[in-house]
Amino acid sequence: xxxxxxxxxxxxxxxxxxxxxxxxxxxxxxxxxxxxSAGNVHINxxxxxxxxxxxxxxxxxxxxxxxxxxxxxTIVTAPEVHGESGxxxxxxxxxxxxxxxxxxxxxxxxxxxxxxxxxxxxxxxPMTNIAVFLMTYPELKEKIEKFVIMGGSSIGGNVTPAAExxxxxxxxxxxxxxxxxxxxxxxxxxxxxxxxxxxxxxxRIKSIGTLAADIAFGAINHALNFYKDTYGRKNVPMHDPCTxxxxxxxxxxxxxxxxxxxxxxxxxxxxxxxIDYNDKLKQPKNALVLNKINREAFIEMLYNSIKSL
Length: 309
Ligand code: RIB
Ligand code: CA
Prior knowledge:
Layout: E1 4-10, H1 14-25, E2 29-36, H2 43-57, E3 63-65, H3 79-82, H4 104-114, E4 119-123, H5 128-136, E5 144-150, H6 165-169, H7 171-178, E6 184-187, H8 189-192, E7 196-198, H9 199-206, H10 211-231, E8 235-237, H11 241-248, E9 253-262, E10 273-276, E11 287-293, H12 295-308
Parallel strand pairs: 1-2, 1-4, 2-3, 4-5, 5-6, 6-11
Antiparallel strand pairs: 7-8, 9-10, 9-11
The structure holds alpha-D-ribofuranose and calcium ion.
């Protein structure tokens, strides 16, 4: 089977961690590199989490540290969701794995300049690294197959009433990516809130009894406790893994090609994503927006992937 070459830009982060485990477990994905963003927690913590996860599960993968703040704003983080470390109570094994000396933007340019085939870029955090890359190296845009992005919402925000976190942290960066002309598959809260793990499904993952299972349990359980305490939910949505699941099994999802834009000026709506399902604005349809998931198939994929690590 032909492998899918990908780059992952992420801010681990409990659900980013599950997305990385899903990617490490499935050899149909050829991970050309990982770039780290600031978002869930400070860039040093998201980078250390990434370094240790790669060191534990696929130490050949190259990692580059990204921008420590949004393009124009101060950083907003979410330690209340992911813990100060970014991974709740999870203690990742130490590793000798070293970071690339290039920063994320230069690392992206090197990979894309050198590749003979187009590469899919998966984004599961604020889009600062990718936006700065697009502004710096527009000529390399043609080497990107598509963006598969977790972000946005047409069902209300999770960081403000209007905005989803990844967009809100750097809405200007999201605007640059949405207007880039590169093909986009978007996994907004519309679909990711239905990609949830039930408590008994989480215990089934824990029962696998491996390092990967322990890390996955710790990450998901920490996020579950946040959703229980904050929303009274007895299950926990797995936002970022939807991007990888889509690449592994597109027919697990349903969606619609529509216009997606970002509000940059609203006093209360900064970072809101406009997902124009009914084509009211008559704007170019720049994204395939996923809005339905076969949750049972998603859970089976998560379980089997974690079990295989
Ligand atoms: O809104 C959910 C997104 O924000 C996820 O990517 C999560 O990791 C946080 O970054
Ligand atoms: Ca994330």
